[in-house]
Specification:
By secondary structure, the chain is mainly α. It has three helices and no strands.
C-alpha cells in the first residue's frame, strides 16, 4: 500500500523518495509542492537578431540594477 504523500512533511517525503527511488509518485508529490517563483521573468531564446536586440534591451536594466546593488 502506498503512503499518503499529502500527510507527510517535506522532510518525510524527501526521505521516503530517497529511500524508494523507484516510486515516481513520490517525486510527483514533491514536484507538486514546489512553489513557483513569483519574481521570475521567462524569456524564450531569440531566433532572429532583432529578437536578440529586443531581449538585450529588456534585460539591460536588470543587469545594471544588480551591478549597482553589489
Amino acid at each position: 500500500m502506498k503512503p499518503n504523500y499529502s500527510e507527510m512533511s517535506w522532510a518525510e517525503l524527501k526521505a521516503y523518495a530517497l529511500k524508494h527511488r523507484d516510486d515516481t509518485e513520490a517525486l510527483d508529490a514533491m514536484y507538486d509542492r514546489r512553489s513557483p517563483d513569483s519574481e521570475a521573468t521567462w524569456f524564450s531564446p531569440p531566433t532572429t537578431f532583432e529578437e536578440w536586440e529586443t531581449q538585450a534591451k529588456a534585460l539591460k536594466p536588470l543587469f545594471d540594477r544588480q551591478q549597482t546593488s553589489n
